[in-house]
Amino acid sequence: QVQLVESGGGLVQPGGSLTLSCAASGNIFNFNRWLMGWYRQAPGKQRELVAQIMSGGFTNYADSVKGRFTISRDNAKNTVNLQMNSLKPEDAAVYYCNARYLDTYWGKGTLVTVSS
Predict the structure, then answer these.
(1) CA–CA distance, 34 with 81 (Å, rounded to integer)
(2) DSSP for residue 115
(3) Residue 76: is its pLDDT beyond 90?
(4) Secondary structure of residue 62 in the 3-state scheme
(5) For residue range 57-72, what is the model confidence (pLDDT) as tens digits?
(6) Are 4 and 104 within 8 A, CB to CB?
(7) What is the pLDDT of residues 78-98, one digit of tens each?
(8) Which residues does residue 40 pair with via DSSP β-bridges, in sequence order?
(9) Which residue in 43, 37, 46, 51 sits closest to 89, CA to CA?
(10) Is 115:105 a contact under the CB 8 Å cutoff?
(11) What is the rounded distance in angstroms from the CA atom of residue 4 to the CA atom of residue 21?
(12) How far apart are CA 53 and CA 43, in angstroms?
């Protein structure tokens, strides 16, 4: 089994920044080959992809966060981060870490609230 634990969520004012972290543990082998991603789900909405980072470091972002969010990974530490800048009220959601390699795993999520 694989466990994903998110951290770093919280309350931030519009225009502010937060960094989310996801730590992977358990049956993680060759973490560098895993497709890692961040998804989010706001109340009453479907879960949506925010950003992904592939084994070669290639990244993919939702149009709504391009230029504001940056996903990165540390293969030595089995972690993935999401740097979020210029946050908007519409970014408020529960953010979930996702890992894919032969199977798909999800974290329990971390809440991001953007409000003045």
Answers:
(1) 14
(2) -
(3) yes
(4) coil
(5) 899 999 999 999 999 9
(6) no
(7) 999 999 999 999 999 999 999
(8) 48, 95
(9) 43
(10) no
(11) 10
(12) 26
